[in-house]
Design brief:
Elements: H1 2-8, E1 13-15, E2 21-23, H2 25-32, E3 42-45, E4 47-51, E5 54-56, E6 64-69, E7 73-78, E8 81-86, E9 90-92, E10 97-99, H3 105-123, H4 132-137, H5 142-154, H6 161-187
Parallel strand pairs: 3-9, 4-10
Antiparallel strand pairs: 1-6, 2-10, 3-6, 4-5, 7-8
Helix pairs in contact: 3-6, 5-6
Amino acid sequence: KLNSCIKLCKSKWIMVIDADYLISNDLSIEILNINSNAKINGYSTDIFHYIRKTIICEKIYPSKIILFKKNYAKYKKIGHKENLKIKGKTKKLENFILHDDKKSFNRWLKSQINIANEEIKFIFSNSKNRKIKDKIRMIPILPVILIFIYYLLKLNILKYKSGGIIFLTQRLIFETILNLKVIKYYLRI
């Protein structure tokens, strides 16, 4: 889908962000001050979750390329995500984006189920792109336990108080949904 959109764009530069991203004035200024003639073909930024007015400042996800030159970019679908590949140099921006997911719980839950459906297809495909985390997700129950331990002990997610509790609960709900689908896959239900 996104590759078709790129082809339709008339401009040299393209910016792709989600509707629930918050961009600070500092990031806007940084983007406006980019030297468009530099030999950089893409710019990435960190994305942090923003829950209950709390920034979860953890590198939970890798930085994401949000601004790129049209002729050097191509999206590739991996699981439920479309990953952007850039030919040539990329540079990381100093400022970050906040992900403020304001979906109702019912809408959020439906989206997690849809994402889990895509992930199951990917995890059990013969994909060369399957990573170690995907292989772990193929083991019933283990991923839910590991996620709990990782966020609670390694990241100390509770230091973010109610925002951390909500984030941890969301991760556990998703991993449980995914794990139930793994079990169903093995049982062929």
